[in-house]
Amino acid sequence: MLGLIAGMIYSVMEYLVPGSFLHANLHSDAANVDFASLNYYAFSCLSTVGFGDIIVTNHPAEMLSVVVAVIGPVYLAVVMGVLIARITASGTSAEVEASLTESDAHENTI
After folding, report:
1. Which residues of 37-67 are buried (b: 16+ CB within 10 A; e: fewer)?
2. Which of 16, 29, 36, 100 is the least buried, fewest Cβ under 10 Å from its Cβ?
3. Does residue 29 register a pLDDT over 60?
4. What are the boundaries of each domain within the chain?
5. Are 75 and 6 in contact (CB under 8 A)?
């Protein structure tokens, strides 16, 4: 979803300021990018790969690309942290319950 949202924001940027994004390997009017190319660029920014085949030509587009490139790894870290915390918490909870049960059983035999 983040990639699609970023692609839409890039499309709005390109609509408001035509020529903000260009294909680096084309040197004609065909160098302008379309919606699919902007979505591709958004996903490459989110993953911080940055192939370099689409370039930005003005400062607002550069800043937008930097923001998207920072959001990608932060989002991944947060999602992975939450998943790992949930897995660890459920495993730890089961271990604590098992040890309490063993402790109660041991106290009852004494």
Report:
1. bbbbbbbbbbeeeeeeebbbeeeebeebbee
2. 29
3. no
4. 2-109
5. no
